[in-house]
Amino acid sequence: MPAALQPRRLLALLSRHATRVLFAGVFIGLALPPLAAAARPYLLVGVIVLLTAMLLRVDWGAMGAYLRRPVLATALVVWLLAGAPVVIWLTLLPVGLPESLAVSLVLMAAAPPILSASAIAVLLGLDGALAIVGGLIATLLTPLTVPPMALMLLGLDLEISVGALMARLAAIVGPAFLLSLAIRKGAGPARLDRYKPEIEGFTVLVMLYFGVAIMDGVTARLLAEPAMVAGWTLAAFVANPLLQLLGGLAFAWLGRRGALTVGLMSGNCNMGLLLAALPPGTDFDVLLYFAVAQLPIFMLPALMLPIYRRLLAAPTVERA
């Protein structure tokens, strides 16, 4: 029996130290390039598994409550897919950054939230249901919004086939929903609640896999052009919290927990989705930024956890 309990203990341990584990993930990928290269081909499967695990942890009743608030859902999606990239574009106009970096920052802001935002939200004590609702709607609408935003703001034709990208999204979201429904029906709410730490630990394990896989190729570029990689990384560490701050301020009317959740979604953008859609001749420097921009996604939750705890513990009035 003790041996059989070891996997559960390991998963529970990962759940308790989630932010530290995610922090370490990207460094593992940088330190072990062969491991990152071996993990990269299976990212799509990992996305489906991760989304399934997140759907098992989110309160579906709370998700339904948000879906019945069309004004909130509409405002959230408009901000994530249109407001954020326009604000970043306007901010960059007088700065004079290299063109590839400016393009990368605007495309980042135009991307939907990462699908794991709800998992990170839960780990930080934020609203996982709001994160999953906003993230899923924004992801499904991405094929309709990113190409015109890129063309309008950057003059960049992404050559994205709406139908093909929608099919790709359906191939990710559909199986995850069906699998989570099957598991919920088979296990029952009581058992899922009993295994909450293990499910959270498994989610962290899959996210750790992501942190390793996404670093494929970054180490070689770091050794070849350290100054450039450092500059792109600094830009990512500025852009992520800036978008979080802007998103939180824009939705301060939701109350502290809701505003922080929207901020988290605003800064942690799914650039991997854009990687699949960008044409073959895309500037390699843009692809480099998309890779190093994963660093703040995995590192900031650990660094900012004490701040989140302090903000959420302070007295506040939640508003609908």
Structure description:
There is one protein chain. The chain has 320 residues and is mainly alpha-helical. It has a single domain, classed as Na+/H+ antiporter like fold. It contains 18 helices and no strands. The chain has helices spanning 2-16, 18-31, 33-39, 43-57, 60-67, 70-92, 99-110, 117-124, 128-154, 162-187, 189-194, 196-213, 218-224, 226-250, 256-267, 271-277, 284-292, 294-313. Helix 9 runs antiparallel to helix 10 (162-187) and helix 15 (256-267) runs antiparallel to helix 18.
Features:
single chain; 320 residues; mainly alpha; Na+/H+ antiporter like fold; 81% helix
Brief write-up:
The protein is mostly helical and 320 residues long.
Named at the architecture level, the CATH assignment is: Up-down Bundle
Would you tell me the structural class of the helices and strands? mainly alpha
Number of strands: 0
- Report low-confidence residues grouped into runs of 5 or more: none
The CATH topology name reads Na+/H+ antiporter like fold
Report the portion of residues in β strands. under 5%
Supply Rg. Answer: 19 Å
Spatial shape: globular
Distance between the termini: 48 Å
Mean pLDDT: 83
Keywords: Membrane, Transmembrane, Transmembrane helix
Protein name: Bile acid:sodium symporter
Subcellular location: Membrane
Membrane topology: Multi-pass membrane protein
Topology summary:
Blueprint: H1 2-16, H2 18-31, H3 33-39, H4 43-57, H5 60-67, H6 70-92, H7 99-110, H8 117-124, H9 128-154, H10 162-187, H11 189-194, H12 196-213, H13 218-224, H14 226-250, H15 256-267, H16 271-277, H17 284-292, H18 294-313
Helix pairs in contact: 1-12, 2-12, 2-18, 3-12, 4-10, 4-12, 5-9, 6-7, 6-9, 6-14, 7-9, 7-17, 8-9, 9-10, 9-15, 13-14, 14-15, 14-18, 15-18
